Here is the input.
Amino acid sequence: DGVVDSEKVKSNNVDAEIPESELEAEKKGAEEEPPRESDSNILDVSSDYPRDKHISIQRRLADLEKLADLREDQKKPCPLCPEEKFKACNSHKLHRHLQNLHWKVSVEFEGYRMCICHLPCLPVKPNLVGDQTLPKMGAHYHCIICSATIIRRSDMIGHINRHVNKGETESRFITGRNPKSSYKVVKESATDVQVLPNHSTPQKTDSYFNPKMKLNRQLIFCALAVLAGERKPIECLDAFGATGIMGLQWAKHLRSSVKVTINDCNENSVTMIKENCHLNKMKVKLSVKEEDGDETVGGGEQNTDTIEVTKMDANVIMHLRSFDFIHLDPFGTSVNYLDSAFRNVRNLGIVSLTSTDTSSLYGKAQHMALRHYGCNIVRTEYYKELAARTVIAAVTRAAARCNKGIEVLLAVALEHFVLVVVRVLRGPSPADDSAKKIRYLIHCQWCEERVFQKEGNMVEENPYQQLPCDCHGSMPGRTAVLLGPLWSGALFNTGFLRRMLLEAVQYGLDEAQPLLKNLICEAEGTTLKHFSTHSPVDENKQEECGVYIKTPNTSAESYLVPGKRKSEEVLRSGAKRQRVEHSAEHPPFYYNIHRHSIKGMNMPKLNKFLNYLSEAGYRVSRTHFDPMGVRTSAPLAQFKTILMKYSTPTYVGAQAEGPVHLPGEIQVGEEVPAVAEIKEGEAELAEDGKSGADATVLTPSCPTHCAAD
Here is the structure.
């Protein structure tokens, strides 16, 4: 007891000074005192029980009673209670005490019981009574895995469940790694990865894996495959590896065309990435320090199926090394890593980033969008495209700070993420051109008409004049709001998307193919009915960033000569001369047909409405941002006019099918030039409405329907 007391005094750093002579006397007394039977029985409780676990963790109630087993004629103290709380008593009374107070409220885990402990293991804040300080010790539990002390039983159960979800089912003091029985193998695109049971919770796991992001991974793979076809080999970086599945898919399918580096700042994630590399029969490239002690990778020629795994902060590795392809997929926003990504990325390289902070980007948390992206946004009918343009504006500013411009190749905003893929153009001139495309957006809150603010620094007296609508003159108060700054350029590159589709077909990526077809139609301003796998301009040449880049049907020497500035300038000048009308940018934003439908009228089918707009002379397509959205070059007034013209009444007995004759106040023939074209083909469109207006369902007993037939 004297030894224990002296150790407690040293460990707790008590200010009271104790003479060394008294401590030495206590040690001698402790050495001369014979050991008690209870002390010897503590080690004989269970042969398979580890020594480092607390005495409150036992398998059986009898094992707990053995801790206080003395001679029958002596009273027995409770091993889990101090003497001032429970005095020594007979065996039958101690049995009831242990069973009712300690055993019944225990927490069970893998055959062990974590009983409640009243010993002074967890000190509580003392109660001050006058000048005296009364120490108080609280009841608590000891965790069998990490030896943590937790007060409440419900908190202890939740604490154990978190250990189980992480795969930590053995004590940390015994084994450093989790047992492999707690892992499960997930397969995606012929790639196997080990994940933990809680792999879908990024805040609580070291191996985050989201099956819903499979489409995102396929799109990024297609973009990398297109870049690998331009120049070989390319160095690519997965800055946030987690399980490493994305980098493994790159290396497994593209092989010698890419040199893959998977990075993560978490040590457990790095260990799991290495195990997943061996699971997929990939060799791990060791660092300089590791190569001295391990000879798994020879010093001769490098294996083509080799992946480099690093443990660094993402900003650090992107500052230290140069890459051709960089993908950023952090938890939440990626604006903290943009400056590092554009610092050393090579010319004509690609940077892709996935943002999952949809609450701020989709207008639910506007203060976070202002804080992270420096952008003012509100919830609109086109909020997903607004989110994509917000992210691209942040990317453009980060690239411009490094004297680099961007060319947007792809922008996708779905339910769970916003994906942006851009090509990097080195030089101050591309940086200036990209920065000029960042503008503010004037948005009408009444009719949701929108227009980008004109270029220039001069302040206008009435900015409402830029809006095509007349809501400011007819409605009271201020009707418009200024959003942005946003990216005002194109969101898609048709040539790049077509080559991505070819790669998706080649590697059998079924989920990405329908989306890529829709994106191509959206970029060209056509419908899926007129979709063709060949480019209408030239199926062998496609222009990106002012440079003709080869497709699989052409040779690399014909259009792109890497490392020669003169040839690039010749190609740039030739591209400017050969630009055709087809390369015009797609219309910005879209209209939701349900948002602008007329009350009491059945609107036409969406595909037929697209044909009506196309016949009126406007570019029109569907959009992946909204399944009921229409991307068109028509102004909102003309959009509503055509929608009203081909809508049918919902009540029986009214005009059954065909175009609706608008009242005088709705006609906008003088304001919209394209109305003349509609009037010229009115007879033909009326017959189309009679034969194909499927929005209204009429019964055979309807007299109007019979008359129309």
The chain has 26 helices and 27 strands. Residues 383-401 form the longest helix (19 residues). The CA atoms of residues 123 and 137 lie 5 Å apart.
